[in-house]
């Protein structure tokens, strides 16, 4: 029963101990990492291999960066980056095959401050993602689009609507594009399992957010119909957010038959 995890590590070198700890303790089958914050040649490949994982990497010096890890297997890379903007050099999308599954690790642009060029870039990026998602659906295979989407889809996905009201993560345009993605035929696994909301995947380092449980849900696993048919569970490994020098995101997962 494969367990597929999305985990924004917020700097793989700074959080290596926490990441390896998670891999050893939980033994997930596939892990999509985001925000590696390191160029390919500086990434801790040997440490990840020592933990029992093969990996494909798409790093970038200082920020962004995505990877796909597979336990006792080597993921086969299918695509890095999204078509549609030859000027876009950000490492935000990596697609790989692991067994019969296609998985993509996604680090969607934050978009703040909005309005402005960063927000416009976010919306254009989401349109490009939608094009790729449509092509993947046409393959009629089990696909998981896993990552930090930097979108709070619903009001009950945030500890406070007023606190986030002006944030790019909660703007109508961001939400509309996320809903359009789901309307293609993707299943939001965590939402399906927690229809009433109130489940967080991120807690800011500021203002005692973790201590107050003032979080929101921005890490999502979207399943193609062929993957959704096999869905058996989805959740957040929240306790890992509370460990020393942890990422501000918690690992978020699905299990498939």
Description:
By secondary structure, the chain is α+β, with helices and mostly antiparallel strands. It has one domain: 4-Layer Sandwich (Deoxyribonuclease I, Chain A). Helices cover 26% and strands 25% of the residues. The chain is built from eight helices and twelve strands. It has helices at 16-26, 45-50, 117-138, 161-164, 172-183, 189-193, 209-212, 225-228, and strands at 3-8, 30-34, 53-58, 66-71, 76-80, 93-98, 101-107, 143-148, 187-188, 219-223, 231-236, 252-256. The strands form two sheets. Strands 3-4-2-1-12-11 form a six-stranded mixed sheet. Strands 5-6-7-8-10-9 form a six-stranded mixed sheet. Helix 3 (117-138) packs parallel to helix 5 (172-183). The mean pLDDT is 97.
Radius of gyration: 17 Å
Taking the sheet with the most strands, its summary is: 6 strands, mixed
At the fourth level of CATH, the homologous superfamily is Endonuclease/exonuclease/phosphatase
What is the strand content?
Answer: 25-35%
Query: What is the succession of H and E elements?
Result: EHEHEEEEEHEHHEHHEHEE
Annotation field: number of helices: 8
Q: Ends: how far apart?
A: 5 Å
CATH class: Alpha Beta
Q: Which word captures the global form?
A: globular
Number of structural units classed as domains: 1
Global structural class: alpha+beta
Model regions low in confidence, pLDDT < 50 over at least 5 residues: none
Give me the count of strands: 12
Helix content: 25-40%
Could you tell me the mean pLDDT?
97
CATH topology: Deoxyribonuclease I, Chain A
Active site: 107, 148 (proton donor/acceptor), 249 (proton acceptor)
GO molecular function, one term: DNA binding
Cofactor: Mg(2+); Mn(2+)
Pfam families: Exo_endo_phos (PF03372)
């Amino acid at each position: 029963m494969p367990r597929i995890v999305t985990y924004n590590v917020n700097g793989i070198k700074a959080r290596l101990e926490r990441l390896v700890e998670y891999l050893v303790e939980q033994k997930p089958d596939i892990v999509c990492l985001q925000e590696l914050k390191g160029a390919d040649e500086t990434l801790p490949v040997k440490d990840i291999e020592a933990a029992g994982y093969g990996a494909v990497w798409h790093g970038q010096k200082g920020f962004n960066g995505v990877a796909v890890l597979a336990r006792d297997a080597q993921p086969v890379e299918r695509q890095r980056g999204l078509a549609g903007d030859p000027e876009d050099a950000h490492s935000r999308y990596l697609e790989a095959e692991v067994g019969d599954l296609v998985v993509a690790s996604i680090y969607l642009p934050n978009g703040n401050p909005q309005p402005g060029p960063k927000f416009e870039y976010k919306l254009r990026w989401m349109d490009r993602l939608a094009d790729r998602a449509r092509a993947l659906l046409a393959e009629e295979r089990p696909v998981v689009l896993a990552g930090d989407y930097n979108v709070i889809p619903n009001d009950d996905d945030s500890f406070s609507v007023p606190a986030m009201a002006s944030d790019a993560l909660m703007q109508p345009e961001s939400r509309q594009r996320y809903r359009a993605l789901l309307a293609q035929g993707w299943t939001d696994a965590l939402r399906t399992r927690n229809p009433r909301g109130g489940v967080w995947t991120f807690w800011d380092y500021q203002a005692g957010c973790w201590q107050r449980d003032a979080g929101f849900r921005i890490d999502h696993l979207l399943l193609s119909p062929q993957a959704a048919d096999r869905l058996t569970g989805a959740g957040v490994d929240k306790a890992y957010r509370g460990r020393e020098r942890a990422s501000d995101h918690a690992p978020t997962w699905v299990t498939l038959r």
